Amino acid sequence: MIRLIRSEILKIRTTNTWWIFALASVLTTGLTLAVNCAQAHYYLNEKLNLPSDLPADQAEQARQQFAAQHQVVTQSVNVFTSGQFFGCLFVALLGILLITNEYYHQTATATFLATPHRSRIVTAKLITGIAYAAVFWLLTTVIDLVTGVIFFRVEGFANHLGDWDVSRAVLLNLMAFAIWAVFGVGFGALIRSQIGATITVTVLYVVGMLAAQIVFAVLHQFIKKDWVLTLQVVVPSTASQIMLSPVKLFPQSPPQWVGAIVLIGYGILAGLIGTLILRKRDVS
Amino acid sequence: MSDGRIVVSGLTKQYKNVRAVDDLSFTVEPGRVTGFLGPNGAGKTTTLRMVLNLVTPTAGTATIGGQRYADLPDPLRTVGAILEASAAHKGRTGRNHLRVICAAAGLPDQRADEVLELVGLTPAAKRKFKGFSLGMRQRLGIAAAMLGDPKVLILDEPANGLDPEGIRWMRGFLRNLASEGRTVLVSSHLLSEMELLADDVVIIAAGRLVRQGPVAEVVGSMSTNARVRVRTPQAELLTKELTQAGATVATGTDGALLVTGVEAPAIGAAALRVSAELHELVTERPDLEHVFLELTQGKATIR
After folding, report:
1. Does the complex come out with an ipTM higher than 0.90?
2. Where does the record place the ABC transporter domain (chain B) (predicted)?
3. If both were cysteines, with which of A75, A179, B282, B286 could B224 make a disulfide (CB 3.0 to 4.6 Å apart)?
4. DSSP secondary-structure letter at B93?
5. Which of B265, B222, B221 is nearest to B242 (CA)?
6. Are A130 and A181 in contact (CB under 8 A)?
7. How far apart are CA B210 and CA B187, in angstroms?
8. Cβ–Cβ below 8 Å for A105 and B89
9. What is the pLDDT of residues A172-205, one digit of tens each?
10. pLDDT of residue B302
11. Measured between alpha carbons, how far is A209 from A235 in angstroms, rounded to an integer?
C-alpha cells in the first residue's frame, strides 16, 4: 500500500497540477482573508442602534443576533478559517483529477497492470487525496494564523486562539478539507469525463447551497414546518458550512455535529461507490 | 516462477449486442514469438485485455504460467504489456512516467533509466510526453513493459506508427527476447511483418479461433498449391506438352503461363523436349497473407 501511495503522490508531483492548485488556493485564501478582516473590523467596532419604537420582543431578538455576530470569537473563527470555501473546492477538484486523469491520459491501463487489485488503488488514491487536503489545510491555516494574530493585535482585541470554539473550528476545517477530497475521488469514479466531473462538482459546490435555500424555502411554503428548513443540511455544501459555523447559520439550522455527520456520511458513500464502480468497470 | 506459458481456455466476452470473443482457446509457448492475427474487429484487443485482467470475461479463463493475472504476486515482474502507444500524461516526462510505474510495482527508480537506455530513449528522458513522436511513444511503451524484466511479453499492434527502421529494430528486439526463452505474444495486422517475425500464429476471426500452429505448418496446410510462372515465346507449344504431362495451365493477364500440378524441374524438362525458349520460371508459394485471406474470408464482416 505504501508503494501505491508513493506512486500516486509522484503522479501529482510530476505534473503542473499541484502548484497551480496551491497557488490558486493561496490567492483565494488571501482574498477571503482580506474580506473577513474587513468584515471583522466593521463588526467589532460597530455599536448597536435600535429604533426606539421597536417592540420589546423584537428588540431582544435583534440584540441577541447583534451580540452573536459581534462577538470577537465569531469573528476570530471567521478569520482563522479563511480560504475554506475555495480550499475545499480545490481539494475536491484535485480528488477528481486523481481518477479522471487516468482515463483522460489513458494511464489507467498501466496503473491497473501494475496493481490488478483495484480496490487497493482506490484506497491509495483516497489516502493521497486526504494527504494533499491536509497539506492545503496547513497552507491556508498558516496564512490565516499569521495574518489573524497580527490583525487582532492591531485592532486591540484578543485573538481567542486558545478558545475551544476557535481551535475546534480550525480542526473541523481540516476535516472538511479531507472529506471534500474523498468526495472528489468518488465523483471522479462516478463521472469519468474530466470536464464533466469538474463542472458538476464546481456547480454543485458553488450554487448548491444557494439553490438549496431556494428549493427549501419553496417547500416551506407548502409544508409550514421548521424541520423542512432544518433539512437543508442534506446538501453537502450546506452541511460543510453548518459544521464550521459556531453560531447558527440560519435560525432553523441543526447543531454543528449534525453537519459533520452528514458530511462524513457523504464522504464514505462517495468513496464506496467510487471503489465499486472502478472494480467493475472494463478498461478498454 | 513457472514456465510462462499462456493458456487461454473457453474465453468469451459478450457485450450488449455483440459476442466480441466466442469460446476462444489457444496456448502460447515460451521461447517463441507468437503472432496473434485477425481482421479488424476480430476480438484481438479484447482477448489480450482479458488475459491481463483489464476486461472481465463473460466466461472462460486465461492463465500465465498457470496463474490468472490478478493472482500473480508481482505482475510486472512476470508480464510486460504494451496496449496503446499514446498512454502517458502529456505534461509528464518520459522518465517520470516510468518512475510512477516503478513506484507502484516496487521496482527501484534506476530501472527507469535502464529501460530508457534499452530502447534508445535516454536522450529524451527529460522531455515531456507531449513532445514525443509516435515512434518514441511506442518505444516508451516497450520501455514500460520491460521495467520488471518480465518472462512474458504481450504486445498489441506494436508496429503501429513505427517507420521502417523502427519496425526492423522492433523485429530484432522481439526475436532476441524470444531467444532468451521468454514468451512473446504479438497482435498485428501486418502479415508480411508477421511472416518475418513469428514462429507460431494464432488466427482468429469474428471472435473465434480459425487456425493455430507454426507458421510453416499453417501455410503448408492450405489447399492452395504451389504455382509456377512460366514465360516463353512458344506458349502454345509448351502448354500442349505440359497438359499431356498432367499439369493445369492457365494464362495470366500479362501473358505468362500459370502452371499447377507439376514442379519447376518437370516444366524445365518439358521445355527442353519441345525446344521452347524460357524467359522466366518462378515457383510462387502461398504466403501468410494468402493463407490469412483465404482462412478469414467472409468472416471479417462488421458485427
Report:
1. no
2. 6-231
3. B286
4. B
5. B265
6. yes
7. 15
8. yes
9. 889 889 988 988 888 888 888 889 989 988 888 8
10. 55
11. 7
**Rounded (10°) CA dihedral B278, B280, B283, B289:** -160
The whole-angstrom distance between A106's CA and the closest CA on chain B is 5
C-alpha cell at B48: 489480450
Q: Which CATH code is given to the segment(s) B6-220?
A: 3.40.50.300
Closest Cα partner for B204 from B46, B16, B52?
B46
Facing residue for B106 by CB, picked from A3, A283, A284: A3
Length of chain A equals 284
CATH code for the structural domain at B227-285: 3.30.70
Size of interface A-B (CB pairs under 8 A): 83
Report the SS3 class of residue B260.
strand
| Chain B residue with the nearest C-alpha to that of A280 | B56
Q: How far apart are CA B85 and CA A110, in angstroms?
A: 11
Boundaries of CATH 3.30.70 in chain B? Answer: 227-285
The whole-angstrom separation of Cα B185 and Cα B30 is: 9
Calculate the alpha carbon distances from B157 to A52, B7, B95, B222 in Å. 86, 20, 23, 26
Q: Determine, for residues B101 and A115 on separate chains, whether the beta-carbon distance falls below 8 Å.
A: no
- Nearest chain A residue to B154 by CA distance is A113
For A119, residues 6+ apart whose C-beta sits below 8 A from its C-beta are: A275, A278, A279
Max distance between CA atoms of chain B, in angstroms, equals: 77
Q: Does A112 touch chain B (CB under 8 A)?
A: yes
| Amino acid letter for position A69 | Q
Q: Identify the pLDDT of residue B1.
A: 43
Alpha-carbon gap, residue B156 to B25, rounded angstroms: 18
Average pLDDT of chain B, as a whole number: 87
The residue assigned the cell 504431362 is B245
Q: Cβ contacts of residue B270 below 8 Å, gap of 6+?
A: B238, B241, B242, B245, B262, B276
